[in-house]
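Handoff note, outgoing to incoming analyst
You'll be picking up this chain. Sequence as last confirmed:
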Amino acid sequence: MTPDSLIVVGQTETIYGEISPQRPADLHRSFNPAVGGLVLALACWAVPGPAPAAETYHSGVLNNITSTASGLMVMLDTGLPDNCAGTPYGWMLIPELNKTMIATALLMWATGSRLVTIYTTPNPGGYCIVNQLDPV
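Most recent structure output, in case you need it:
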C-alpha cells in the first residue's frame, strides 16, 4: 500500500478515486503457529493447583450450596480458612442481607464457573460468616 492510499472497509481508495477490492489476507496478519503454541503452553502452566489456606481466606472450587432462612450456605472442596475452625460440616454462611454475594454465588453455581476465593469472619458457636466472595 502506498502513502497516498486510504483503507475503507475492505477496499483501497487512492486519492485519484480508483477502488480495488482487497484479499482478506491483505487486511490482517495471518496466525502464527509458534505464538499459538506459546499461548497454549502458558494457559496449561497457569491452571491453578491446590490453594493454600490462610487465616481469613481460602481458595477452591465451590462444590456445594444450600439455602437457609439465614442466607446461602456454601462449601469449598478445599475446606475452611483457619479462622473457621469448629464450623459445622465445613459450611460457611453468606448472610441474607448480602444479596450481591448470594447472587454472585448462585450465578457461579448455575454457570459452572466455580473457582473462588472466600474471605471470612469467625462466628463462635455458629457457621463462619463469608464477608467477601471473589470469583477467580
